[in-house]
Amino acid sequence: MRTHYLIADGDRLAFAAEVVRYGFSPSDFALEVHRVPSKLLPRHSPAATFAVTVENVKNGRCASYLGGPGRSWIAGFVEDLIAGTFGQP
């Protein structure tokens, strides 16, 4: 698991636990974290302060999620992981 910016330890651990839970390895994924300027946010997302792009480095499949206070980007990632967005382990 590679990160370009710091990610909270709790998020990093939760992410790793979920990928292992569904049969992947944390090293299968690369994470990029970017700050989201408030002027780019939709009105219904005032709490989003960063975006996380998750890529399965083995197959190139990726998706992005908004995070910040009161937002769980990991929940959206897990939904996509279960749905097969990132392929199979």
What would you say this structure looks like, in words?
With 89 residues, the chain is of the alpha+beta class. The protein has two helices and four strands. A four-stranded mixed sheet has the order 1-2-3-4, with helices on one face.
Outline of the structure:
The protein has 89 residues and is an alpha+beta fold.
List keywords for this structure.
25% strand, alpha+beta, four-stranded mixed beta sheet, 89 residues
Largest pleated sheet = 4 strands, mixed
Count of runs of 4 or more consecutive helical residues: 2
Rg from alpha-carbon coordinates: 13 Å
What is the molecular shape?
globular
Helical content (DSSP H or I, runs of 4+): 25-40%
Mean pLDDT: 86
Give unreliable regions as ranges: none
Query: What portion of residues belong to β-strands?
Result: 15-25%
Provide the succession of SSEs.
EHEEEH
Can you count the beta strands? Answer: 4
Oligomer: single chain
End-to-end Cα distance: 15 Å
Strand and helix layout:
Elements: E1 2-3, H1 9-21, E2 29-35, E3 50-56, E4 62-67, H2 73-83
Parallel strand pairs: 1-2
Antiparallel strand pairs: 2-3, 3-4
